[in-house]
Amino acid sequence: MLSALIFDVDGTLADTELVHLEAFNAAFAQEGLDWVWDVPLYTQLLEVSGGRERIHHYWRSVNAEVQDIDGTALHAWIAHLHELKTAHYEERVRSGAVRLRPGVLELIEAARGAGLRLAIATTTSPVNIAALLRAAMGPDWQLAFEVIEDASTAPLKKPHPQVYLQTLQRLGLPAAQALAFEDSSNGLRAARAAGLPTVVTPNAFTAHHDFTGALRILPSLQGVTPDDLRAWHASACAHAQ
Ligand code: XBP
Ligand code: MG
After folding, report:
1. Interval between CA 85 and ligand 2 midpoint (Å)
2. Does ligand 1 lie within 6 Å of residue 202's CB atom?
3. C-beta of 123 in contact with ligand 1 (< 6 A)
């Protein structure tokens, strides 16, 4: 039986990545760096989940010759850079730079009405989730989500399943009683590794990803109802037996 829906945030609830990209570049400029990420580069860099991890990966690619490095100082500097980035992102989202993807709010409301439990499983930072969902759903947005697992609670980033396993544990449910919603191949791999049937709604940054193993691949959640989800979930369970 389907009991809960677990949503990724970036790319799934909203097309946030262009705003994340702007925020990274604003932080680099603020720090006096000459790094400028464009859309093709950022599309590649999105293969690395998590903003801090993405900056670290990029730093290594431009400093390939540096061997003897004080890792503690580097990590502190990356954390500082990422804090600047988070502040730029939050400011943009608060001023209305991002809206939820088509059908997301309608499905959240219909699912709550249909007695489904809702959760969030994301690699992003908690302030980013709050900024986005407060702007989109109002100050009571947290009432909709029984469990939220994010970068502050699940340090191992997708495709590692930690964030989904912790979400299921806190919901007190086996994976077979939930559905995940994702937009990227790392997200899908994380959800599948936790045993979750997964509905994928790709976006411009992830359209080229491999979505093998998805329960459904849809252009958006527009028009999707709780009854559709129950039917798809039942077909996944029937196949699994
Ligand atoms: C999203 C991410 C995040 C955002 C940036 O992945 O990888 O890193 O791009 O957010 P998912 P932070 O949608 O799979 O959770 O800078 O806060 O990490
Ligand atoms: Mg995502």
Report:
1. 18
2. no
3. yes
Query: 4-15+99-240 has which fold?
Result: Rossmann fold (3.40.50)
What's residue 68's pLDDT?
A: 59
Q: Which ligand is nearest to the CA of 17?
A: 1
% of the chain exceeding 70 in pLDDT: 98
For residue 47, is pLDDT > 80?
Answer: yes
Cα distances (angstroms) measured from residue 51 to each of 17, 45, 128, 139: 11, 10, 12, 26
In this structure, are strands 178-182 and 147-149 parallel, antiparallel, or unpaired?
unpaired
The answer for residues whose C-beta is within 8 angstroms of residue 192's C-beta and 6 or more apart is 198, 213
Q: Is 8 designated active site? A: yes
49 in ligand 1 pocket by Cβ < 6 Å? yes
Architecture of domain 17-94 in this structure: Orthogonal Bundle (1.10)
User: Which amino acid type is present at position 241?
Assistant: Q
pTM for the full predicted model:
0.95
Domain ranges of the chain: 4-15+99-240, 17-94
196-228 burial code (b ≥16 CB/10 A, e <16): bbbbbbbbebbeebebeebbbebeebeebebee
Give residue-wise pLDDT tens across range 137-177: 999 999 999 999 999 999 999 999 999 999 999 999 999 99
**pLDDT tens by residue, 60-93:** 999 877 765 678 889 999 999 999 999 999 999 9
Catalytic residue among 8, 34, 68, 183: 8
The atom of ligand 1 lying closest to the CA of 82 is 16
